Each structure stands twice: as C-alpha cells, then as structure tokens.
Amino acid sequence: MGSKAGNNHTATAALRCRAEKQLDGRESDARSSHALHDSQRDLHELQVHQIELEMQNEELHKIREALELSRNLYVELYDYAPVAYFTFDQRGVIQKMNNSGAELLAIDGVMTGLPFSDFIVDAEGRDAFINHLNFVFKQDILLKCSLRLKRSGGTEIDVMLQSVAIAKSNDDRYILTSIVDTSVRKQFEEKLQKAHDNLERTVLERTEELLKTNLQLSQEIEEHKKAKAELLGTYSEIESLKNRLVAENIYLQEEIGSQYNFGEIIGESIPLSQVFLQIEQIAPMNATVLLLGETGTGKGVVARAIHRNSTRNARPLITVNCATLPATLVESELFGRERGAFTGSDARQIGRFELADGGTIFLDEIGEMPLELQSKLLRVIQDGEFERLGSPRTIKVDVRIIAASNRNIHEEVKKGTFREDLFYRLNVFPITIPTLRQRKDDIPLLVNHFVAKFNKKIGKEIKTVTKETLNSLQGYSWPGNVRELESIIERAVIISQGTSLQVLDRFEKLHKEEESAGQEVKALIDLEHDHILQVLQKTGWRIEGARGAAVLLGLNASTLRARMRKYGIVRR
Predict the structure, then answer these.
(1) Fold topology of 440-502
(2) Averaged over 282-292, what is the pLDDT?
(3) DSSP summary character for residue 267
C-alpha cells in the first residue's frame, strides 16, 4: 500500500510541475518585474489547480477509451471462442457463459444464474463438481475434472472440465472453466478396448487350432515314417525292375541301330555312311555341333542320334525351331520370363535352356534367330549363364548345343544378318547332311520303312513295291528330300488298293510340276544373269561407289560379287 501511495504522490507532483510550466507560458508577457502581491499568488494557485484538473480529466478519458476497447475485445474472444467457457461463483452458479457453452448444454441463447449442478447426471458427479470448485479456490491452481452431463434435450455426454480461480476486484474472485466434450474419444476408447478383447480371444482360439493342427501333423509325420519304411522295403525290387527296363531299352536301341546304324536314320549309302562316322566321333564329346543341309534331309534325326549316343542321354533333348516362333517370343521361349515381364505375361515361364540343363538343346533353323538375341546366345555358349526376362538373377546351366540350318550361314555373316563370332562358336564340328538326290541308293530302304510305318498307322497291308515304282522314285530329284518322300509314301499307302504300293499317277504329276518349276527357275536365273551383265557393262565394270553397279542393282557389293561368281560373270 505504501508503494502505491508513493507512486500516486510522484504522479501528482509531476502533473503539478507540468501545469506550472503551462501557466508560466501563458503569463510570461503580463508578469511585471516587481514582486507579486498575496492576492495574485492565490489567483495563481487557483489557475494551476484548474489546469491540473483539466489534464487529469484528459488522462482519465484516454484510460476509459482503452478500457472500453480491451473489454470489447475480451467479450468478443470470450463469446465466440470455439471452446465452451463458463464463469462460476464459489457455489457453482453460472455467472457467465459463451456461445459454445450454450451449444454444449443445448440451450437456446446464453443463460446465467443457473446452478451448473442441474446439468450433472448423478449425485456423485455433483459432489465431485463442488469439491472441484472448492479446491480450485483454496489452492489457486489449474485443475481438471471429468463429469457426465445431461443436456437440455435429454442426451448425455462425457466432458472434461479445466478450471482456474481469477481475481475480479477487492480481492473478489470467480472461477473460469473450459469444458470439452470427450464422448467421441470415450466411445473410441471403448471400441478400441473391445477390438483388443476380440483380438485376444481370436489369438487364443487360433492358438488352440494351431496346437490341434500341430498334433495332427505330428501324427501324420509318424505315419509317413512308417510308410517310408515300407517303401524302403520294396526299393530293391523296384531297382531291379528299373535295371531290367534299362537293359531292355539298351537292347532294343542296339537292335534298331544294328539294322540301319543309328535308329531313325535309314540308309546305307556312302554319303550317309560318312555322316554315321561323324556321329560316332562327336557324340561322346560335349562339343557344339552345327548341322547343315537342305530342308527335309533329316537334321532333327541326326540331332537325336547324337544325343542318344552321348553321355547326356539320361537327360532330355529339348528342341526349339527358331523359324516357327514369333520374333517377339523367341527370347522368352529360350531363356524364360518372370510374371509381368511384358504385357500378357501373367505367369512365370521356365525357358528351354533351363529345361535342357544337364542335357542337350537342338536349335533348329538357327539362321532365323533375330540378330539382337544372338549376343545372348553367344553368352550362354561361352559362359553357360543368362537371365530370365524381367529378372536380374543370373542362371547357370550346363547344356550341350546342337544347331541346324538350311541356309548358308557363311553368306549370312557376310550380309551382316548373323554374328561372325557366334558362327565360329557354333561351327566347332559341322556335319553336312546329304540330300536325297545324293543318296538315291537309300530310297528302297526308306520306302520299305515308311510303308511299314504307315501300314501300322493307317491299318493297311501293303507288302510289295514294284521295280517300276522304285525306278520312278529313284529318278525323281526330291527337292523336299526325305520329308517329301515320307509324305508321298503316306499318300500312296492311303490310296493304294490291295497289297501293292501305287504311286505312279501322283508321281507323274510331281514330275511335271518339277519340270515346270525348273523351267521357271532357269528363266529367272537367265534373266538375272543378263541384267547383272548389262549393268556392269554400263558402269564400265565398276562394282562399288556411288556410280557402281551394286548401287544401281540395289545390292551390297559383296552380294553382287557372290552372284557374279555364281553365274560365272567375269570381265573379258
């Protein structure tokens, strides 16, 4: 109190000093040089006091405006706060509430003078509320309290009160309380507890099921052990049967081989005997083999013979025809793919190289393989490894490769459609299969073989083939080789009546077709020969360059030189 009085005295003295200075300014011109009389001094005191009052009034006016502004701001913040605020006296009577408080209690408009206990559901809660207020008043601290309220509409909610005692004036205090609806959180906690209880119950039930399953599996394992013991008792018998079957298989293969040397390969001509010798030499090795020859000469049969007589015959021979596979599928067929490697690949696929692991893979028509895949094939030959489409994992395989082509691979290398390094890797041991035109002495053996084959298939009993028929067959040039002969014999067995093979009518037509085709081919060859010769003469026998014959003919220079050699065109 003494400090406050001292401050007031200091303020009053300062105010009087300011008033005297202001009055001195007003009377500076009227003041005479002689001393003031007593009456003049009294007048002076009155004027100073009047100025003091005016200045005090001005200060009070400013303070009143600031207080009014602060009060309005407080009222606005209080009334429109998103949190429910209540002001209670010590008895718990509502002195003031904001709009959120009225909304919390579901009452129309802001109401005061109501005992807050009227909104508390039970007596225990009302006692807790009164104790809460008393404690806040006495301890002068921020305190929380949980209650359950009944709103004016009848619904009940769980709330959290947070109260603090605030001095109003003359040491007169009231309680400011914020109230938050906790019903949603409580419901969530109840649901969470319920879910936790359900989870524990499910875990217990599942644990019981697993224990029962484990017991059942243990019993099945014991039964499996008993069954395994019984199977071991019969293993020796199975092994002996297996050895017997293997021996019989070897015997049958030897019987077939002794008839015509190499099972499916039918013939005893000199050109074919050379092939037999090459098969005997290379079959036991693991070297790569390149089979060359026209379409239908039996490259697949030779590949099977090499595999059958190799150390890999216990493992499969996997065949891939590069000419029949679409270019977009060659890579996935050879090397496999993972699910989703490309559009439409909805399943994982094992590639042919994986299937052939430990055995042999036969790449028929290797000259048709796309250039972009030849490097991947080269890597398999060199390192024995590759990756599936859509997978970064490297796969190692041990595969013997037999390749075949009816093309001139060396010419394909020159044209740039086949990799030179891949050709050298494949051309380790080339075997050229003779055409049927080169081994006409084998035609009678082949005819008898195919007649017997189709007799069994169709149900016929063809027993004889006339000398005239054989002479006619041996006189034909066989552009389709053994495959064409097989087709002709099959048709002949189908149409033949009785026990003698009849092929003359059909074969005469083939002769005419062959002669006609041969004439057409010869005409085309002659035409190309003359055209090349004319262009060379026109360019002064210049082959390369912008004005060379190769450009005018639309050919590579190497291709033009090859055709010149083929047609015997030389500069004279």
Answers:
(1) Helicase, Ruva Protein; domain 3 (1.10.8)
(2) 93
(3) -
